Amino acid sequence: MEKESAVLLIFTGGTISMSEDPTTGALRPIDFDRLQEYMPELKQTGIRIKSVPFLPLIDSSDVYPPVWERIALLIQENFEEYDGFIVLHGTDTMAYTASALSFMLENLSKPVIFTGAQLPIGMMRSDAKENLLTAIEIATSKENGQPIVPEVCIFFEDNLFRGNRTTKKNAEHFSAFNSYNYPPLAKAGVHIKFFRSYIHYPASGTALRVRTKIDQNVAILKLFPGITEHTVNAILNIPGLKAVVLESFGAGNAPRKSWFFDALKNATDRGILIVNKTQCSTGSVEMGRYETSLNLMSAGVMSAFDCTTEAIVTKLMYLLGEYTNPDDIKHRLSISLCGEMTVI
Ligand code: ASP
After folding, report:
1. What is the pLDDT of residues 318-341, one digit of tens each?
2. Under a CB-based contact definition with an 8 Å cutoff, are residues 168 and 94 in contact?
3. How many Cα atoms are found within 13 Å in the side-chain-facing hemisphere of 57?
4. May I ask the CATH class of domain 218-333?
5. Catalytic residue at 45?
6. Which option is the CATH number for 6-210: 3.40.50.2000, 3.40.50.2300, 3.40.220.10, 3.40.50.1170?
7. Residue 94 alpha carbon to ligand 1 centre in Å
8. Is 59 helix (H, G, I), strand (E, B) or coil?
């Protein structure tokens, strides 16, 4: 007889678990037990599901690196016992948590599927049930006894995306996420269709290694026409700062003003890593394509290629936490560690 499939459901909170506060009308997390009442289908899946609620359940705006660490350690402790892992999480920062986990769970060989909902589970038109039931099916899908998607992913509406390629794109529609620079790993319609050539498989025989050191001394500097020297310097001189994501224009361009170059050069000379990420959702940074990015190269700025902001911020936090040698960090920044970018 085939062994029954088993899934660990890690429940952090989010809209999926919320109801309206009768006094203020604002959405806030409800009790975990009530959530199970709303989903009797969970018992009918034929899959052993154990849930671990992080009490109190939280809105994902309150998720921060210690929550990432808790999720990573829970997966590590239960890795052998389950076929796959589901993380129920608010949509607002889901792409950050999924990106962080993709770096923290090295050599992952089982599915870790993030999902949530745009409408609370108790509401008639909620997307919660479909998202969760399909995520469970994906987390237990196997071929020749091997998991089909051994990656950290986000499943929402009908798309399965690689977590570290995903961005929340819509605060209103059920299709809340997109992966602008990488195709979906699966599409769920009447059948779930997996696109295997896009799925990353770990080298065989490698064991899961969980990395939990995170360094939060990272900032984002988003350029806009008219940004002042004062603003740029204020960010680049934050005490303890170790890395900056420079959100640039188009293919990675920035003003050619000499004060701007001096501010960046001064920061990289002080050992601060500056990584160039385009403000465009689709496409890649190509430093040197325009004159307006040549300067950035001479100031020691590195490229984030086609990474999402979520992926590059969490990659920096992970690298700064786990490595001390600047050359090791720079080398790992320039390559794709788990499919988070396409190096050109
Ligand atoms: N504010 C909620 C959260 O991110 C939104 C959601 O879950 O969709 O926790």
Report:
1. 999 999 999 999 999 999 999 999
2. yes
3. 27
4. alpha beta
5. no
6. 3.40.50.1170
7. 8
8. coil
